TrEMBL record:
UniProt organism field: Blastopirellula retiformator
One family name in Pfam for this protein: Cupin_8
Domain JmjC: 100-245
Spans through the membrane: none
Name of the protein: JmjC domain-containing protein
Amino acid sequence: MSHGNLIDWNKDLHQMESEVITTTHRLVETGLFDDEHLVRILDTHPRDALNVNTMGIDETDHSDWKEGDASKLNGEQLLQATKEGRLWLNIRNMLTHHREYADLINSIYDELESKVAGFQALERSANLLVSSPTAIVYYHLDIPVNMLWHLRGKKRAYVYPPYDERFVTQATIEDVICGESYEELAFDPQFDESAFIAELQPGQMVTWPQNTPHRVSNVEGLNVSLTTEHKTPKAIRRIKLFRANRFFRHQCGYQNLSTATEGVGYNMKMAAFSVVKAYRKLFKKKEGNYAYPVTFELDPMNPTKVREMSAK
Ligand SMILES: [Fe+2]
């Protein structure tokens, strides 16, 4: 089933590629995000595509982000633990595992493509985020373009100026894209003076240009949001370019590397890097891939809902 008129949208492609945008949507009215539906999703979702995390309270210390084992609780217990504890459930790959939600997510993107001349959402994916009333997500960036569709509870998204070296350097974005470092970034509370702060209520969304750093603090109630990710042709070129730039920075010592995703310089750089990629494939040299170790289990009897594995 496809859905019609889900989003109020009046931005053009240039604005989508350069500005932080908020608007309203009608995803909640589908009825797909109440407790009953969440429990059904959690009970049927493959557990290897579900992350459960907990975190500290200091937004500058992302080393407190911990990965847990969600395998032993059923959907109802997981939801209850999230309502009462300080957890962040990331239900990944909704497009692959839930037909009804895949239809909804494709409807969102089809509608945006019909409303924005030149906009193409390729490599679409979506994760459903279910998180505790006081949970936070540390300062980080994402590799594709993402959109946060808020559905339940209240949260505050801090979005920092895009394409600005003061907030994240080009070299750091290259490292994240190449899997050489975590998506979490060093955060200075003074950054907040420059932040765009989106106070998200159910029925609101926020999006920002590719690789823009951001962080999130929940404000009230169980929070449910859908985070959709896509790549435009330009976003795909940017990812390839940053991979190439990292190679030229580290192997050839170049520092002032252009971020232009078109033109002669871009084409020459990509041609040179394709030779490097072929070499790496030949000798099976792989890029790094960071993942958090699992360090806690969920314990419904514990007030925090978390039990460190070493404390067993
Ligand atoms: Fe993010």
